[in-house]
Amino acid sequence: MNFSLVKQNKSFKRPKLSLKHREALTGYLFILIPIIGFLVFSLASICASVYYSFTDYDPVYQVANWVGFDNYIKLFQNPDFIDALINTICLLASIPIGVTIGLLLAVYLKKLAHGSMLLSLIYYLPAVTSAVAINIIFNYIFNTEYGILNNFFGLNVDWFSLTDPVLIKIAIVFKNVWGAIGSTMILYLAGLNNIPNEYYEAAEVVGASKWQQLINITIPMSNPTTFYLLVTGIIGGLQSYADSQIFAKGNQNATTVVYFIWSEGIGGSQYALACAASVFLALVIIALSIIQFSRNNLLKSGK
């Protein structure tokens, strides 16, 4: 036996990793689980939805024959989907209203209320309230028979009327503005605190009014916050579901695209059609996000 070779093997040691490599390995281990979760539960689902949108997929009978763009053609021939798409677009009106009110509240808190913690807490309460709870509460508020709104103002308005497509949209927009105003105000308040006071002092020296300061200083300097709120607001608005399911309880005048996907896919067993609607919605969200980012980059470059 070659004892010298054995001795050399025993004395062999694996090279130690450098601090940089150990830190990198630790980082990769930390993100491994989220990456696996994304690959299994998100990316795989996305790929499956895209594939099944081009088939006549039926999980009960295990059928998935290729049909091309038939599902997309049926989708735009379906009046329920067209109504859901129009309703979803109309409900996005709450975004500019909420952004405007949130900015005005932030200006009020900073300039007039001097950053009152009590008022900030009161305005921010809707942001920490469950979306389901908000929808249930506002469903009672707008109730025709015993709702607070009708009883307090002496009205007799059927906000959930099946024949009037406008009233329930007004109710949902009002609810969504109230629900988002807290987070919008806090974000704008944080942005306003980053605006140097020297700008306002210089504006007062030249005789600029409060309104002129708002238009020429506050709003332009708050553009990053406005951009963030618009992007996230549109993405969230296009994916709204609780408005139709909980607040409107399936009222056809308030159905959204996501509610249509749920009702057709789960309720109607039209899984391929629901996949086509999901893919279409995802493409719309991606396209709108790209347009907003491109516009924002153009504004930054001054073109």
TrEMBL record:
| Membrane-topology annotation of the record | Multi-pass membrane protein
Q: Where does it live in the cell?
A: Cell membrane
**What are the residue boundaries of the ABC transmembrane type-1 domain, all occurrences included?**
84-292
Q: Name the principal localization, coarsely classed.
A: membrane
Which GO cellular component does the record give, naming just one? plasma membrane
Q: Which protein family is it in?
A: Belongs to the binding-protein-dependent transport system permease family.
Matching PANTHER family: ABC TRANSPORTER PERMEASE PROTEIN, INNER MEMBRANE ABC TRANSPORTER PERMEASE PROTEIN YCJO
User: What is the name of this protein?
Assistant: Sugar ABC transporter permease
Taxonomic classification, please?
Answer: Bacteria, Bacillati, Bacillota, Bacilli, Bacillales
